[in-house]
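User: Here's a chain of 229 residues. Predict its fold as C-alpha cells.
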Amino acid sequence: MKIQKLGENQVQEIKQEIKKKQIGLNKLHINYRFVKGELYIDALGVEGIPQTEEYYESIEDNLTYIDFAWLTPLSNHLNVNLDASIPVSPDGSFEHNNINLELHIAIPGEVKENHRILSYVTPLFKKLIPFRAFLTQIEFGWHNYRLSNIRFKLSLDGKKVNSILKTEQVVNTQILGQWLSALSQVLDYNQGRYKHLVDLPIINGRISTAKYETGLCFRFDGKGKKKWS
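Assistant: Prediction complete.
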C-alpha cells in the first residue's frame, strides 16, 4: 500500500508556521525514518522577513510537489531511511533538480557472514540500479567487528523519479554483479576491524575500489591501553 508521507494537512501546517514566523527560506531538510514511519522537516532561513502571499503559495505548491514527485514514491519503493536537503530560491520555489539525498540502511546484528550480507543487500541494490546516474558515493560502516550500516549518497533530480519508477526495469546484471563484487572486496579487506568507515566513489554507475577514503577509529581505556581499532 502506498502511504503518503507529506499530506495536505502537514503542508498547510508548515506553510502557516513559516508565514507566522516570517521565515525567508534558504533550504529545506527532510528526514524520513522507515521503521517508525516518522517524517522530520527543518525549514531553514532568516526570521523576520515579510513575504508576499504569492511567496507562501509557492512554498505550499513546492511542498506538495515534493511529496508527489519523489518523497512518497521513492520512500515507498526503497523502504529505507532517507535524508534530503533542497535549496530554496528567493521567490519560494525549490530546486527540485538539485537535491542532496542520502539513503541508509542498518544491517541486522544476526547478518554477519559475508554471503548473508550480500544476500541481504541484493534486493536494495536491484531497486537502486535504475537511479545509478544520480549516485555519487557509498559508505560502509563497521561496528563491533561487523558491517552495521550502508549509506548511499545521490545528487538527485526529483523531477525524474516518477518516470524512472513507471518504466518497466530489467535489472542490469552487469552493474549488480559489479556492486556485489565491490562489497565483497570491502568485506574481505576489512575483516577484524571493530569500528571502521569506508567511502567509495560511484562513477558512471560503478562503485570504484581503485582509490577510496578510509577512517580508523581508536578507543583507549583509562590507563591509555588501546581497546580496539
